[in-house]
Amino acid sequence: MIAPAPPPALTLSGVEVRDGARVLLRVDGLEVPAGHLLGLCGPSGAGKSTLLHVMSGLIRPDRGAVRWGGADIAGMSEGARDAFRGAHMGLIFQDFMLFEELSALDNAAIAAAWAPAPARAVIRARAAQVLRDLGIEAPDTPASRLSGGERQRVAAARALAGDPQILLADEPTASLDRAGADRLIADLVRMARAHGRTLICVSHDDHALAAMDEVRVITDGTLGGPA
Predict the structure, then answer these.
(1) Model confidence over 33-48: pLDDT tens digits?
(2) Are the beta carbons of 158 and 216 closer than 8 angstroms?
(3) Domains by residue range for the chain, with CATH
(4) Comparing C-alpha atoms, which of 61, 57, 46, 49 is closest to residue 14?
């Protein structure tokens, strides 16, 4: 069996995101080694989600470099950023963004709809396995009938179905009770360690942050040192 390629290291340098004259985000420098688990914390509105979106290429910074290995996604076109994200990343958003009429499995395997024909069965099989790993015992249940915790686990399975090298999670435990939050974080960390994935998690949850290798603080749009 061929070992999966390791995730690329992440380097941000001189990054700024602006809204007119206002600086929404400033990152002078940040290095995230391959396979590292990084937590990002700070007050609401401080720029945490903006930074995560810059890392994913969903937001192109006004200046600076965002390098995953040798690829500077800040310098790519929107289409190239989309392609890079699809090939390397899985994203978990605050909003579950499930299709209510689709089953848990169909939601988790939604990427198969846009994948080349030979890859569709692989994505669907991987989605089914991740759902089992995350404790979803009835994958045919429509999303409209799932609990909040189940919906978040389906959203996590969707992010993992493509076997990404990089997992970016924005407040993944915000809608969960303590037991559900602890279980999800334990599962995400376990899967990241087992597959050598880089995991970057924005959170207000002290339990989630405690599971990371390192935590950095964002205040007033500026990335500071370790928490």
Answers:
(1) 999 999 999 999 999 9
(2) no
(3) 10-226 (3.40.50.300)
(4) 61
